Amino acid sequence: MQTQDIPAELKSYFDSSHIALALAAVTADNPLLLVNERFHQLTGYDAADVVGRNCRLLQKDAENREARAKIHAFLEDDRIGAVRTTILNFRKDGRPFVNLLYMSKLTALSGEVRFLFASQFDVSRSQPELLSAYDAELSRTLSRLTPTLAESGIVIEGSLMTIANTVATVAQAKLTLADLDAPGFP
What pTM does this model have? Predict the structure, then answer.
Protein backbone atom coordinates (compact mmCIF):
# COMPACT_ATOMS: atom_id res chain seq x y z
CA MET A 1 0.00 0.00 0.00
CA GLN A 2 1.31 3.39 -0.95
CA THR A 3 0.92 6.65 0.95
CA GLN A 4 -1.14 8.01 -1.95
CA ASP A 5 -3.81 5.43 -0.97
CA ILE A 6 -4.36 7.26 2.33
CA PRO A 7 -7.49 9.42 2.17
CA ALA A 8 -6.63 13.14 2.06
CA GLU A 9 -8.95 13.78 5.02
CA LEU A 10 -6.96 11.33 7.13
CA LYS A 11 -3.63 12.94 6.16
CA SER A 12 -5.03 16.35 7.02
CA TYR A 13 -6.29 15.07 10.35
CA PHE A 14 -2.86 13.67 11.22
CA ASP A 15 -1.27 17.04 10.43
CA SER A 16 -3.57 18.88 12.83
CA SER A 17 -3.61 16.36 15.69
CA HIS A 18 -2.40 17.38 19.14
CA ILE A 19 -1.26 13.84 20.00
CA ALA A 20 1.32 11.48 18.49
CA LEU A 21 -0.20 9.40 15.69
CA ALA A 22 1.05 6.75 13.29
CA LEU A 23 -0.62 4.86 10.45
CA ALA A 24 0.61 1.49 9.19
CA ALA A 25 -0.21 -0.72 6.24
CA VAL A 26 -1.98 -4.03 6.67
CA THR A 27 0.61 -5.93 4.65
CA ALA A 28 3.57 -8.10 5.54
CA ASP A 29 5.39 -6.54 8.51
CA ASN A 30 2.94 -3.62 8.75
CA PRO A 31 5.22 -0.81 7.52
CA LEU A 32 4.47 2.71 8.66
CA LEU A 33 2.82 4.90 6.06
CA LEU A 34 2.36 8.12 7.97
CA VAL A 35 3.49 9.75 11.22
CA ASN A 36 2.72 13.23 12.45
CA GLU A 37 4.77 16.03 14.01
CA ARG A 38 3.78 14.97 17.55
CA PHE A 39 5.20 11.49 16.81
CA HIS A 40 8.45 13.19 15.80
CA GLN A 41 8.45 15.34 18.96
CA LEU A 42 7.91 12.25 21.14
CA THR A 43 10.36 9.85 19.47
CA GLY A 44 12.84 12.06 17.63
CA TYR A 45 12.10 10.11 14.45
CA ASP A 46 10.65 11.96 11.49
CA ALA A 47 8.75 10.45 8.58
CA ALA A 48 11.90 9.94 6.49
CA ASP A 49 13.34 7.78 9.31
CA VAL A 50 10.35 5.49 9.78
CA VAL A 51 8.00 5.38 6.76
CA GLY A 52 8.36 1.96 5.17
CA ARG A 53 9.63 0.39 8.41
CA ASN A 54 7.78 -1.44 11.18
CA CYS A 55 7.25 0.63 14.32
CA ARG A 56 9.00 -2.09 16.34
CA LEU A 57 12.20 -0.18 15.54
CA LEU A 58 11.28 1.91 18.60
CA GLN A 59 11.77 -1.18 20.79
CA LYS A 60 15.42 -1.75 19.92
CA ASP A 61 16.42 -4.86 21.93
CA ALA A 62 13.80 -4.57 24.70
CA GLU A 63 11.98 -7.83 25.42
CA ASN A 64 8.48 -6.38 25.86
CA ARG A 65 7.09 -9.93 26.02
CA GLU A 66 3.66 -9.09 27.41
CA ALA A 67 3.16 -6.06 25.16
CA ARG A 68 4.31 -7.98 22.09
CA ALA A 69 1.89 -10.81 22.90
CA LYS A 70 -1.00 -8.33 23.13
CA ILE A 71 0.00 -6.65 19.87
CA HIS A 72 0.38 -9.98 18.05
CA ALA A 73 -3.04 -11.12 19.31
CA PHE A 74 -4.56 -7.83 18.08
CA LEU A 75 -2.93 -8.21 14.66
CA GLU A 76 -3.86 -11.86 14.24
CA ASP A 77 -7.43 -11.88 15.58
CA ASP A 78 -10.06 -10.08 13.49
CA ARG A 79 -12.35 -9.99 16.52
CA ILE A 80 -9.96 -7.71 18.43
CA GLY A 81 -10.64 -4.19 17.17
CA ALA A 82 -8.27 -2.29 19.46
CA VAL A 83 -5.47 -2.80 21.95
CA ARG A 84 -3.85 -0.63 24.60
CA THR A 85 -0.65 -1.54 26.37
CA THR A 86 2.51 -0.06 27.77
CA ILE A 87 5.69 -0.88 25.92
CA LEU A 88 9.31 0.10 26.48
CA ASN A 89 10.49 2.21 23.54
CA PHE A 90 13.59 4.24 22.75
CA ARG A 91 13.88 7.66 21.21
CA LYS A 92 16.12 8.20 18.23
CA ASP A 93 18.85 9.45 20.59
CA GLY A 94 18.63 6.19 22.58
CA ARG A 95 16.78 7.52 25.65
CA PRO A 96 14.17 5.01 26.90
CA PHE A 97 10.54 5.86 27.61
CA VAL A 98 7.44 3.91 28.51
CA ASN A 99 4.97 4.28 25.66
CA LEU A 100 1.25 3.93 26.36
CA LEU A 101 0.37 2.52 22.95
CA TYR A 102 -3.15 2.50 21.55
CA MET A 103 -3.81 0.65 18.29
CA SER A 104 -7.01 0.26 16.30
CA LYS A 105 -7.98 -1.21 12.96
CA LEU A 106 -9.40 1.08 10.28
CA THR A 107 -11.83 -1.02 8.30
CA ALA A 108 -13.54 -0.44 4.95
CA LEU A 109 -17.31 -0.79 4.84
CA SER A 110 -16.70 -4.13 3.11
CA GLY A 111 -15.07 -5.39 6.33
CA GLU A 112 -11.53 -5.34 4.94
CA VAL A 113 -8.97 -3.87 7.35
CA ARG A 114 -7.40 -0.98 5.42
CA PHE A 115 -4.95 0.51 7.93
CA LEU A 116 -3.62 0.19 11.46
CA PHE A 117 -4.02 3.38 13.47
CA ALA A 118 -1.82 4.04 16.50
CA SER A 119 -1.31 6.70 19.12
CA GLN A 120 1.61 6.98 21.47
CA PHE A 121 2.02 8.70 24.84
CA ASP A 122 5.03 8.84 27.15
CA VAL A 123 3.96 7.69 30.61
CA SER A 124 7.53 7.50 31.90
CA ARG A 125 7.42 10.56 34.07
CA SER A 126 3.91 11.83 33.48
CA GLN A 127 1.67 13.16 36.18
CA PRO A 128 -1.82 11.62 36.42
CA GLU A 129 -3.44 14.81 35.12
CA LEU A 130 -1.33 14.65 31.96
CA LEU A 131 -2.47 11.08 31.33
CA SER A 132 -6.08 12.13 31.92
CA ALA A 133 -5.64 15.00 29.46
CA TYR A 134 -4.11 12.61 26.91
CA ASP A 135 -6.97 10.13 27.35
CA ALA A 136 -9.48 12.95 26.85
CA GLU A 137 -7.64 14.11 23.70
CA LEU A 138 -7.41 10.56 22.35
CA SER A 139 -11.15 10.13 22.95
CA ARG A 140 -11.83 13.42 21.12
CA THR A 141 -9.48 12.34 18.34
CA LEU A 142 -11.33 9.08 17.83
CA SER A 143 -14.70 10.85 17.99
CA ARG A 144 -13.64 13.46 15.42
CA LEU A 145 -11.85 10.92 13.25
CA THR A 146 -14.93 8.71 12.93
CA PRO A 147 -16.89 11.05 10.59
CA THR A 148 -13.70 12.00 8.72
CA LEU A 149 -13.03 8.35 7.97
CA ALA A 150 -16.68 7.69 7.12
CA GLU A 151 -16.34 10.11 4.18
CA SER A 152 -13.76 7.68 2.77
CA GLY A 153 -15.83 4.61 3.61
CA ILE A 154 -13.60 3.61 6.55
CA VAL A 155 -14.70 2.65 10.06
CA ILE A 156 -12.48 2.79 13.14
CA GLU A 157 -12.72 -0.43 15.13
CA GLY A 158 -12.46 -0.88 18.83
CA SER A 159 -14.18 1.31 21.31
CA LEU A 160 -13.57 4.03 23.77
CA MET A 161 -13.75 1.30 26.43
CA THR A 162 -10.19 0.39 25.42
CA ILE A 163 -9.16 3.88 26.45
CA ALA A 164 -11.33 3.90 29.55
CA ASN A 165 -9.61 0.79 30.96
CA THR A 166 -6.42 2.64 31.86
CA VAL A 167 -5.90 1.84 35.53
CA ALA A 168 -4.31 -1.59 34.97
CA THR A 169 -2.27 -0.27 32.08
CA VAL A 170 -0.84 2.58 34.15
CA ALA A 171 -0.04 0.16 36.98
CA GLN A 172 1.85 -1.92 34.42
CA ALA A 173 3.71 1.21 33.30
CA LYS A 174 4.81 1.91 36.88
CA LEU A 175 6.37 -1.56 37.08
CA THR A 176 8.24 -0.86 33.86
CA LEU A 177 9.34 2.51 35.28
CA ALA A 178 10.79 0.73 38.29
CA ASP A 179 12.92 -1.29 35.87
CA LEU A 180 14.05 1.92 34.12
CA ASP A 181 15.08 3.42 37.46
CA ALA A 182 17.04 0.33 38.49
CA PRO A 183 20.80 0.75 38.86
CA GLY A 184 22.71 -0.13 35.73
CA PHE A 185 19.91 0.70 33.29
CA PRO A 186 21.23 3.04 30.59
Answer: 0.81
